[in-house]
């Protein structure tokens, strides 16, 4: 009998030991690549998340309870992402994780969070199937099916005489491969001729062979699905070798990192964007000035998406408080994680990206996309993307 | 493949290959004296490029501790290249002091220095990111004065395109290689270095200050690495503090391919890998990194000592 009492008592204490309240400030995990070759993107994501934390806490956090971002570096590989996720889940006891930076990292690390029933919001994972990894996984980074045809139409408005097009894409990057498919369909739909398709690599820097082939084919438009560093180098080399036609870049070009790579040669490049700092909506008009004050530059798409992720989590936390009538800081961590995930999915959010909807799978539908043209300032280093009129 | 595109590929290959050669020479010099690989050489390459950028442009970007600051002066590119290389040389000396000397003084297994150099490399690269951020820097287009950015030659309807920076890289590399050959074979100091490499004990008995020569070797090696980093940076931009990592690995492939410790071998290895990459059809460009290692594999099967390396004789 006595043994049962001891057992029951120890079970009781074990239970209370597990039932930990969330506490204040509410910990939210940010697991992005702050080192290795993805640091370029991770840095932008960290900046965006920090702006969100500052703005949200200045407005009173979640109905008076502040939030606290817990940063964990994932590096650029899968092992780093898994490690960061595990630390955030068991050591830092975060209520949700925002990350990781790359889709292939998401496929490795998200199942761990899903198993531990911790909601994950993907700020920059665009590969097919990320939102479907599990019921605790959602993302706010949209695929680019709508914006590519728009970008082409705006380019044709600038030069209606375009006939022959060269298509370039980075074959070793999943996002760019799927984007070029959309571009190529759109080019054919516009009745244009694809004169050649050139494959590159995101690691390439020397494009002399591709550029000479394009120059030899006498095209009047080059449509590129590449990232900022490789794409910027290729634009630079195209212009240096005397190519004067139109250049249309995919969403990979939507980064201020283009400017230092191709400098003055960037001017005139048309860019398909999931986010523009010039977008005119209430959320963006509040976000951009604070970001500019903190970091002395316009926010990049990665920054805006990281900000959006934090906002999605905080909006959902408020929703949980409203529905349950309890303060989230006093709720048990495991209980809150489950309630939070239910609040994140199947909801609509006002964000700097415009209105976004997350469906029951955690998949995003984004309403507005943008098309801009790069203009480099006279110093040859700073620039801006000017929205092209509809 | 027609004659024009062959010419184009040879030009592209020689230009990039000559940089690989200079970079790999830095590895070779340290290897020939200490018998180990300096894994911090890739980090020195990166730092050299950033130092030259700082001297030539002087403006820092928007991230990191130095965000928004700028130096009160900016040097013309040739001077900045020289300054950046010298600074990289001193970084090389720093690496020797931090990673190699303490272990050598304690008589540790030389292999341990391999690990400590890897550690110093990580520290250097992370400090760099802390200072200047992970963003991309690149030299402005007017850096070479009034020279045109590129030249186009038309030959039987085909186009041969030459970027000015490719020619500059080729010329600077060739001058550097000749200067190094002269230094090693014609000067007292070069000969002393060779003697130290041959046998440090005998060299020290002959009155050569071995420690000083090891330090000089690291200086020359660092300067060569920094020069290579600048040349790559001038051509393609400085793609963040980690951009030296892949060149570091490629440099290793170059020296093993050419023959460990052989100076002409490093040059030949660099050119072979550069040409191999240039002749890879653009459709397979994502496999460029693999080219160096496939060539390495094939050549080592036939000649385990590398192209110009000497077979080591086992003494029992």
Structural summary, described in words:
The complex is a heterodimer of chains A (about 400) and B (about 325). Chain A is built from twelve helices and 15 strands. Chain A has about 400 residues and is α/β, with parallel strands linked by helices. A seven-stranded mixed beta sheet of chain A has the order 7-6-8-9-10-14-15. In chain A, β3, α4 and β4 form a beta-alpha-beta unit. The longest helix of chain A is centred in the last third of the chain and has 24 residues, at about 300-325. Helix content of chain B is about 65%, strand content about 5%. Chain B has helices spanning about 5-35, 40-55, 75-105, 110-130, 165-185, 190-200, 200-205, 210-235, 245-260, 265-280, 290-300; strands spanning about 150-155, 160-165. Chain B has a two-stranded antiparallel ribbon with strand order 1-2. In chain B, a hairpin with a 2-residue loop joins β1 (about 150-155) and β2 (about 160-165). In chain B, α3 (about 75-105) crosses α8 and α5 packs across α6. The interface between A and B is large, with 45 and 49 residues.
SS summary, helix count of chain B: 11
Low-pLDDT stretches of chain B are: none
* Strand numbers in spatial order across the main sheet of chain A: 7-6-8-9-10-14-15
Broad shape of chain A: elongated
* Average pLDDT level of chain B: 89
Proportion of residues in β-strands of chain B: under 5%
Please report the distance between the alpha carbons of the first and last residues of chain B. Answer: 53 Å
- Beta-strand residue fraction of chain A: 15-25%
Give the SSE order of chain A as H and E letters.
HEHEHEHEEHEHEHEHEHEHHHEEEEE
Largest sheet of chain A: 7 strands, mixed
**What is the H-and-E element order of chain B?**
HHHHEEHHHHHHH
Number of strands of chain B: 2
In terms of per-residue confidence, which ranges of chain A show pLDDT below 50 for 5 or more consecutive residues? 11-17
| Mean pLDDT across all amino acids of chain A | 91
The end-to-end distance of chain A, rounded to whole angstroms, is 80 Å
**Structural class of chain B, please?**
mainly alpha
- Classify the helix fraction of chain A into a percent range: 40-55%
Shape of chain B: globular
Give the spatial strand order of the biggest sheet of chain B. 1-2
Q: Which structural class should the secondary elements of chain A be placed in?
A: alpha/beta
């Amino acid at each position: 009998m006595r043994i049962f009492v001891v057992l029951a008592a120890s079970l009781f204490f074990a239970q209370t030991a597990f039932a930990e309240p969330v506490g204040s400030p509410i910990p939210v995990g940010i697991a992005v690549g702050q080192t290795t070759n993805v640091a370029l993107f991770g840095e932008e994501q960290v900046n965006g998340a920090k702006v969100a934390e500052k703005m949200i806490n200045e407005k009173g956090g979640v109905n008076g309870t502040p939030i606290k971002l817990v940063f964990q570096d994932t590096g650029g590989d899968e092992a780093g992402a898994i490690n960061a996720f595990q630390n955030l889940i068991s050591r830092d006891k975060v209520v949700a994780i925002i990350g990781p930076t790359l889709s292939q990292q998401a496929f490795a690390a998200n199942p761990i969070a899903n198993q531990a029933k911790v909601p994950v919001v993907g700020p920059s994972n665009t590969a097919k199937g990320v939102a479907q990894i599990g019921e605790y996984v959602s993302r706010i980074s949209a695929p680019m099916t709508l914006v590519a045809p728009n970008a082409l139409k705006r380019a044709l408005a600038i030069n209606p005489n375009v006939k022959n097009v060269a298509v370039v894409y980075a074959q070793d990057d999943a996002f760019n491969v799927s984007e070029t498919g959309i571009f190529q369909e759109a080019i054919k739909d516009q009745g244009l001729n694809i004169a050649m398709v050139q494959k590159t690599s995101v690691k390439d820097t020397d494009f002399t062979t591709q550029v000479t082939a394009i120059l030899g084919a006498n095209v009047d438009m080059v449509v590129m699905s590449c990232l900022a560093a490789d794409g910027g180098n290729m634009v630079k080399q195209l212009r240096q070798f005397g190519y004067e036609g139109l250049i249309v870049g995919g969403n990979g070009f939507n980064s201020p990192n283009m400017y230092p790579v191709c400098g003055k040669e960037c001017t005139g490049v048309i860019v398909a964007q999931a986010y523009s700092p010039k977008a005119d909506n209430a959320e963006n008009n509040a976000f951009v000035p604070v970001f500019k004050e903190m970091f002395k530059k316009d926010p990049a798409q990665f920054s805006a998406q990281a900000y959006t992720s934090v906002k999605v989590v905080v909006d959902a936390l408020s929703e949980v408080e409203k529905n349950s009538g309890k303060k989230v800081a006093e709720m048990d961590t495991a209980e809150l994680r489950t309630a939070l995930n239910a609040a994140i999915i199947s909801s609509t959010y006002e964000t700097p990206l415009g209105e976004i909807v997350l469906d029951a799978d955690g998949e995003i539908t984004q309403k507005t996309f943008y098309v801009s043209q790069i203009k480099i300032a006279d110093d040859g280093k700073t620039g801006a993307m000017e929205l092209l009129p509809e | 493949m027609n004659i024009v595109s062959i010419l184009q590929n040879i030009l592209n290959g020689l230009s990039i290959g000559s940089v690989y050669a200079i970079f790999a020479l830095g590895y070779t010099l340290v290897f020939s004296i200490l018998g180990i690989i300096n894994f911090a050489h890739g980090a020195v390459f990166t730092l050299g490029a950033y130092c030259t950028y700082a001297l030539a442009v002087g403006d820092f970007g928007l991230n990191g501790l130095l965000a928004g600051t700028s130096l009160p002066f900016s040097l013309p590119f040739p001077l900045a290249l020289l300054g950046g290389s010298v600074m990289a040389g001193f970084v090389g000396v720093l690496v020797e002091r931090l990673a190699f000397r303490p272990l050598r003084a304690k008589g540790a297994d030389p292999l341990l220095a391999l690990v400590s150099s890897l550690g110093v490399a990580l520290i250097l690269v992370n400090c760099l990111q802390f200072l200047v951020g992970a963003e991309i820097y690149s030299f402005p287009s007017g850096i070479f004065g009034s020279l045109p950015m590129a030249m186009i030659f038309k030959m039987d309807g085909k186009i041969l395109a030459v970027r000015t920076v490719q020619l500059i890289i080729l010329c600077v590399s060739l001058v550097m290689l000749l200067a190094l050959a002269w230094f090693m074979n014609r000067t007292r100091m070069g000969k002393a270095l060779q003697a130290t490499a041959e046998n440090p004990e005998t060299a020290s008995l002959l009155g050569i200050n071995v420690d000083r020569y090891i330090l000089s070797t690291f200086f020359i090696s660092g300067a060569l690495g920094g020069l290579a980093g600048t040349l790559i940076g001038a051509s393609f931009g400085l793609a963040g503090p980690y951009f030296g990592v892949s060149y570091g690995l490629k440099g290793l492939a170059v020296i093993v391919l050419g023959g460990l410790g052989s100076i002409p071998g490093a040059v030949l290895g660099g050119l072979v890998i550069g040409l191999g990459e240039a002749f890879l059809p653009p459709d397979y460009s994502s496999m460029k990194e693999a080219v160096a290692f496939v060539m390495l594999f094939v050549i080592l099967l036939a000649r385990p000592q590398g192209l110009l390396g000497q077979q080591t004789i086992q003494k029992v």
